[in-house]
User: What shape does this take?
Amino acid sequence: LGEMLRKAAESEKYAMTVDIIRQIALTGCRRSEVIGLMWTEADLGASCLRLVDSKEGACIRPIGLPVVEYLEERRKTQTGSYAFPGPRAEDAAFGGFPNHWKQIFKNSPLADVTPHVLRHSFASIANDLGFTEVTIAALVGHAKGSVTSKYIHTLDTALIMAADTISGYIHGLLD
Assistant: This one.
């Protein structure tokens, strides 16, 4: 995946899509959550995304240092509301993702893979690294419906450290 993304990033046309794919892989977020990410939802000082409208409703997602650093750099050059703006309208989310995804991966071993697989991969890697199901659920936004979620009210340091460990590991794999 990393090699294919590096190759795709050589084309200016696919640069934004590659960035979005990397952030999905590094966060375990849904593609709609990354594509529609507004700067007001990126709380980089607290290492989290405060998503207003995810599939689970409003939620907080811890993010690791590779994501924080990427978003900090990106923020320096962005003026609109969206972290990943559309090319024609500054204040609209990027809309070419599905077609670009198909083009990047066509005729490759990943041609049948969907962006949602990156979310599953994030959870699988977290599991392989020894994180608990409750921690993984909190990282990907599934904690709301779990029995233990009533005990998880705040974004604690352990969740941020878990997000940092997982995203750092995936970042290394991609690079």
Residues 62 and 156 are 9 Å apart (CA to CA). Helices lie at 2-9, 15-27, 31-35, 65-75, 97-105, 116-128, 133-140, 157-174.
